[in-house]
Design a protein that fits this description.
Length: 194
Amino acid sequence: MTSSALILASSSPFRRELLSRLQLDFDSLSPDIDERPLRGERAEDYVRRLAREKARAIAMSHPDALVIGSDQCALLDGRILGKPGTPERALQQLREAQGKEVLFHTGLCVMRLSDGFEAVDCVDFRVGFRQLDDDRLRHYLEVEQPWNCAGSFKSEGYGVVLFRYLRGDDPSALIGLPLIRLTAMLEAAGVAVV
């Protein structure tokens, strides 16, 4: 049982680091949910659903806490790119993205069961990839080792060398937790962020 009034429903170190930027006390608990997309489910609906299910999985045992759930997917040519898991799959994902745009959908949910508060949204971000040869892509992969990152890159690090442009209202959405939208949701739930 956590004593914190704010819980991040995630085991992601990236999301924990992002949330810590808001200078709030919080705990982090890993939800156990099935993350497979439903048949015919649109990407935006998929990440909203997962963000809500993650928040709900933790909120069920902590009904008085304000729980934050988030999930992200990357779309290339209308197809969801998952986390590569291996260097070979990462290289293949980066090859496929060369010269193209990848659209990231980040689902966000803030929930408190005790009073029925719930806010759910999806924040989009677009990334334009440069044309790079395999040697340069392999060098990037050796430096960053992004095996657990959707689309095989870390924009907050050396991954910036892969891009022609980054377009979106909230750069933290690309890393996995849209802080601008989250701030508004937390304030709507009664949490003073500033």
